[in-house]
Amino acid sequence: MSVTESIDVVRAAQVLRSLANAVRLRIVLHLLDGEQSVGDLEATLEIRQPNLSQQLAELRDAGLVTARRESRAMIYSIANEEQKRLVAALLSGFGGRPLEPVARKPRRQNGATVPEPHRQVAMFATIGHRR
User: Fold this and answer.
1) What's CA 89's distance to the chain center, in Å?
2) Tens of pLDDT along 22-57?
3) How far is CA 9 from the centre of its chain?
4) What are phi and psi of 53, to 5 degrees?
5) Rg (CA), the chain
6) 115 vs 131: CA distance, rounded Å
7) d(Cα 53, Cα 28) in Å, to the nearest integer?
8) 24: DSSP letter
9) Which domains, from first to last, does the chain contain?
10) Predicted model pTM
């Protein structure tokens, strides 16, 4: 079996095409740190709401991110572990490095310590960003 027979190359090309846009790539790199509301993404990435919504829709259509409603806010996250590994590989492949995780107090529930889920934390840079 050849390498191209082991993956869906059409699907892979669609996902990579989605990530070939600088705004969409910045969004998914930012989401490596965990889920974010549209308002947080807008403020942090300095992307205006109409453009942000359009780019998030493209990422949803490509299966890279998922959205859930929390009260009145839409919360976005990277769709699954496979997509997280892909985005993390892109970050690493272009010289990005994960930040050291921040030490947190252990979470407690019913008197017992609840383990924190593993999170990938990333560092971001904007090069040639125009407003």
Assistant:
1) 12
2) 999 999 999 998 999 999 999 999 999 999 999 999
3) 22
4) -60, -40
5) 17
6) 41
7) 13
8) H
9) 3-100 (1.10.10.10)
10) 0.69
**Rounded Cα gap, residues 11 and 28, in angstroms:** 18
Burial of 41 (0-12, 13-18, 19+ CB in 10 A): buried
Sign of CA dihedral 35, 39, 43, 49: positive
Give backbone dihedrals phi and psi of 41, rounded to 5 degrees, phi first.
Answer: -60, -45
Q: Rounded to an integer, what distance in angstroms lies between the CA atom of residue 105 and that of residue 102?
A: 10
Q: Are strands 65-70 and 73-78 parallel, antiparallel or unpaired?
A: antiparallel
| pLDDT greater at residue 98 or residue 99 | 98
Tokens of 92: 């690493």
Q: Enter the tokens of residue 89.
A: 């590989």
Task: Tell me what the mean pLDDT of segment 94-104 comes to.
Answer: 58
Residues listed for the chain: 131
> Cβ neighbours of residue 110 under 8 Å, at least 6 residues apart?
none
